[in-house]
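How a chain folds remains the central question behind the approach discussed here. This step matters because it turns folding into a mapping between discrete strings. The sequence in question and its structure tokens are set out directly beneath this paragraph.
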Amino acid sequence: MTTEAMTTLARSPLLLPLLLLLGGCALTSKGTPMEIRYFSPESIDAPHARPPLPPVARLHVGDLTSSANLRYPIVHRESAVELDLYETLRWTENPEDYVRRSLSRALFGDGQLEEIVSGAALTLDVEVVAFEEIRRDNRHLGRVQLGYRLHDERVILASGVVTVERDASGASIEPVVAAIGSAMDAATAELAKNVVTRLRAR
């Protein structure tokens, strides 16, 4: 459009507001919004029923917390000292919620432990230290780390850290999520075994 034509349009009292409106739309238009994707590490298959075993003890699951960086954004790391968050990939729940359900199945699913919510019993406190993807030597792994303390009202009877890594079958996020879920179930199973062993010894 020539300069004369633009000047003519600008002088028109009807066209000037239209030009201002079109210019404002161009300045305030937004870019393409980010597509947020949500994932769950829990298997959709029903857990296998296990035959009941003689009860060992009563147990109360106390505090189950997670590290400050473990929230809805999925975490990945490429070194032992650096963590990063995926910008558009999220868990559907906080990692500690997944761990609580997996741990409950591992502890009480076979009847060896009786779960109680009040009264005299030993207490198990758990912290989810890691719930993440690891990239190492062109491999993608799922890693879950759980710290725990088994105690009564006076003393700590057992404590430790359980760490499990599982290889992902591919580099995309779906197999990585499945690997994290597999690592979680293995870690809670190992933690439950440690607790039952300590209670049997007691």
User: Anything to note?
Assistant: The beta strands are 37-39, 57-66, 73-79, 82-91, 113-115, 122-136, 139-151, 156-167. The chain has a mean pLDDT of 85.
